[in-house]
Amino acid sequence: MGAAMTRHILHVITGLAVGGAEMALYRLIQAFRNSGYRHTVIVLTPGGGMYPRFAASGITLIVLDVRRAPVTDLIRLVRLMRAMRPDIVQTWLYHADFLGGLAARLAGNRNVIWGIRTTDVDGGSARSTALVRHLCAALSRWVPHTIVCVAEAARRSHSLLGYDAGRMVVVSNGFDLSALTPGDDGRAALRARCGFAADHVVLGTLGRFNLDKDYANFVTAAGQLASSHPRLRFLMIGKNVDAANTELMRWIDATGYASHFVLLGERADVAICLSAMDIFCLSSRTEAFPNVVGEAMATGLPCVATDVGDVAVLMAGTGVLVPRADPDALARGVAGLVALGPAHRRQMGQQARARIGAEYTMACVRERFERIYEGIMAKGER
């Protein structure tokens, strides 16, 4: 595609907190570097942990504050879209699907791609989010040209909710293997900082403190394992996963093995954090397509994960799958991997990394989105 044929993709996202959708958008734009596409991002709310990363990489950002002035900013959104005349408007998360999609149609742009990032439509979300989701279901036959779901499980749950199944396609997350290549230096330094000995087996988890992540499940399972596995240590990383979290600390203290837990809070060096682990654990009660499992696999870690969303599809037998909300099963799954020994665990981790390399690279994701973009633009509906 020549320079004269440059296509403009305008992304609208709810915010730039550290999360799966935000990371997926960032990686997608990076994957389109030096291509015939240029990308602009409109953010509906200011701030967020991912903002500096977007800004530092030279991504064009326009920040609104729709919570403060919803009507004014909707009008501004329409005006921006009329002025920019993007080839495609791609929205991320429910509020952005609703507002961004509506603004695009009011601006006369029919080339709208919605993004669905969750599977759990029964609970765990705010009433306002549930309302917006129902509005989106009602508008799904009119506003979007295409609805991109991050997981097959997300496609199923939203079509049952009333979303137009005929417009839905599944594009899973992708991962940059080069950025997730394990390094021995980083591993040794972080393990030393955490007080882990060479013969400690480190079971780690990574993600913000949230009901859906079910950290109570992880802590309960860890407490069961600690008594029979004295060399096992537990590394927990993520926003609000720190000593200031009184609820989490209460659960940990109740195990009787608080000294075996290390909590690091939110960190930006995900690859180094993962490389310090020997086994990765996902304890969630609900997910769509968890980035963190893909990242752990790409780092070469064997994973024990709850059977939620598309985890089974992602792991495809390279890790251990357990029922959700069942600490006994989670503990058994981890114990099984510990018993295999380091050589077998490394072999499993290598198989997991190979699976990411074969099916879930950013090159695969870019190719899928490029096909979607070209298919929409070929119809010339703008």
At the fourth level of CATH, the homologous superfamily of the largest domain is: Glycogen Phosphorylase B
Q: Distance N terminus to C terminus?
A: 20 Å
**Which sequence of strands runs across the widest sheet?**
3-2-1-4-5-6-7
Low-confidence stretches: none
Number of helices: 15
Per the principal axes of the C-alpha atoms, what is the gross shape?
Answer: elongated
What does this structure look like?
45% of the residues lie in helices and 16% in strands. By secondary structure, the chain is α/β, with parallel strands linked by helices. It folds into two domains: 189 residues, Rossmann fold; 183 residues, Rossmann fold. The strands form two sheets. It has a seven-stranded parallel sheet, sandwiched between helices. It has a six-stranded parallel sheet with strand order 10-9-8-11-12-13, with helices on both faces. α3 packs across α4. The longest helix has 18 residues. The chain is elongated.
